[in-house]
Amino acid sequence: MSSVSLLSxxxxxxxxxxxxxxxHVGAGVLASREHLLPYLAGRQVMIVTNEAIAPHxxxxxxxxxxxxxxxIREVILPDGEATKTLASVERIxxxxxxAGFNRHCTLIALGGGVIGDMAGYAAASYQRGxxxxxxxxxxxxxxxxxxxxxxxxxxxxxxxxxxxxWQPRAVIVDIDTLRTLPARELxxxxxxxxxxxxxxxxxxxxxxxxxxxALRALDESAIRHAIRRSCEIxxxxxxxxxxxxxxxxxxxxxxxFGHAIExxxxxxxxxxxxxxxxxxxxxTRLSFDRGWLSEADVERVAAILIAADLPVTAPANMQAEDxxxxxxxxxxxxxxxxxxxxxxxxxxxxxxxxxxxxxxHRLLERFxxx
Amino acid sequence: MSSVSLLSxxxxxxxxxxxxxxxHVGAGVLASREHLLPYLAGRQVMIVTNEAIAPHxxxxxxxxxxxxxxxIREVILPDGEATKTLASVERIxxxxxxAGFNRHCTLIALGGGVIGDMAGYAAASYQRGxxxxxxxxxxxxxxxxxxxxxxxxxxxxxxxxxxxxWQPRAVIVDIDTLRTLPARELxxxxxxxxxxxxxxxxxxxxxxxxxxxALRALDESAIRHAIRRSCEIxxxxxxxxxxxxxxxxxxxxxxxFGHAIExxxxxxxxxxxxxxxxxxxxxTRLSFDRGWLSEADVERVAAILIAADLPVTAPANMQAEDxxxxxxxxxxxxxxxxxxxxxxxxxxxxxxxxxxxxxxHRLLERFxxx
Lengths: 370, 370
What we know:
Two copies of one chain form a homodimer.
Chain A: H1 2-5, E1 10-14, E2 21-26, E3 44-50, H2 54-65, E4 71-77, H3 86-98, E5 106-111, H4 113-125, E6 131-136, H5 139-145, E7 150-155, E8 158-165, E9 170-174, H6 183-200, H7 202-216, H8 220-240, H9 255-265, H10 272-289, H11 295-307, H12 320-329, E10 340-345, E11 348-352, H13 357-366
Parallel strand pairs in A: 2-9, 3-4, 3-5, 5-6, 6-9
Antiparallel strand pairs in A: 1-2, 7-8, 10-11
């Protein structure tokens, strides 16, 4: 156990009354029994992971669980957003039932956002709800999708259309797992990190502008700060509005545009974070058109996205109508009014449903294509 | 509107804080706009019903909704417990998405327990949760399944294995709908009514003993009293323990045995209430074996079940091992201990996990087969 005592783990809390839970952030925390075992609901443990992650971290996780008198099973799904379907969730349910697991079992999601969303939804609906733990292994999952209880799968007609709000019992962020993450996925995660600066915290945005190179080089201290600050903001927003009746919607900056891009291009061809990057650029440009941002602000947003190696143009093959038809079905749109997250200033977002159709159409027509 | 003022509607409340909701009970309440319209979340309404119920009540429900500037769609599923599958729920989701319904839509379940369970689960998981209203049309749904927020579907490996706790916004019980209910289903509903007397209220049990003939003849005053008292008990138990951590389990008297019967016989061949009837007889006999009930108590339970035209024997083709293998997977069983609801006395149930395997086995071997 002496190795554990050398760990430097920072713990935040998501405050949701009886459903409050910790986020443990540290290099090597995956090996720490004390940060994992207390959150198991019973003896039955189902690890849900995928073919890309299992070779790197499944054995390590099982090692951490070993010797605790647990019944451990695993489901290894294919990799990628295209697998984020009800059929994959059914595979998890089938495995749980084949193992005879009862409602006191625990699911552990070991992987990126897709694994976390599917394992979380599987947990939410298995025997009307069982415990689950998030061990996110991508930057995007570590700073965004593993925190806050949004779970679900895609439907051919739209992203995340089937799902539940179901909070994990703990989120365990081992930043060492980023060392096996492809650079493209690291950039995709940085899109959500940048988002927190844009919507909530101008000084964090400034810090990011100065530290993007360090983040892309996986400097441990920089990565740790970026994850902690992102999780703090997410936890604060979620504690205030768990089921997205109000302020939580701010976290969707760029997402309505981004979801349209993902759906049009086919899930997985653009990574979620890439689509959000382009989408944030579109929201930024629309905020400029509304008169709230300066040309310098727009340039600043473009510069930080480019520094993170994220797209700042829309797909070449996507017409204005391709956006509009998909944006109308987006969950965030109340009845027929188009509700968008925009920027009143850098570091301060707002929810607006008063964008004129003509103004939006002009943006969609003129926005640069890549 | 003068016809509405002639209605005699009694309203109970299920107390769950922000998620509290009313149960409106009355003859003809299906036609009452004031008992339905206030519970819609927005303009989009999806009615979920089945082929047996639609010819009787769909037009009446649409008439009640007419003129309120709503966008009304419907999904008409096949009838029967065999349809209580994820595939049926997917049909509901597909219809919602095809209609472009957003997260401010409302699902209305018009039908028996199967429709209510499926529509409720569809609502729980559509866009991470939308509103739904229960309009139960069978006695079983009116006194039990429509109240309390248990929703879900069956899996080939077990009943109700996939689902959610998701409370309706209102339960609307029109007792006139019982006039089209087959006698066999009326009896199945009486099993749950008798259950409330057995687990909770000896004086209600005595009232039932005196009024079973009137109930089977659909005497309005008797039916109204039985439904109201059943819903009162259910609401009291659910308010105390929404997610079945403790006392709510008492509502499962006879259900662990009953689920084994349903699963072994194939869902729908034995009605749920019939299997619960036989299961309550088994739990009663086991309570006698434990020394808590007298032979006279056992005879009394048998007599009231027989008076309700419910089975008091197990299926002829079911061996002790057929029960045991299915009971172990039952949701109500914590790890490997078999947890059963038994009767300390008539009118008072208890949760016990200390039944000796040998005693249970002896019961399962010797219990009469039909």
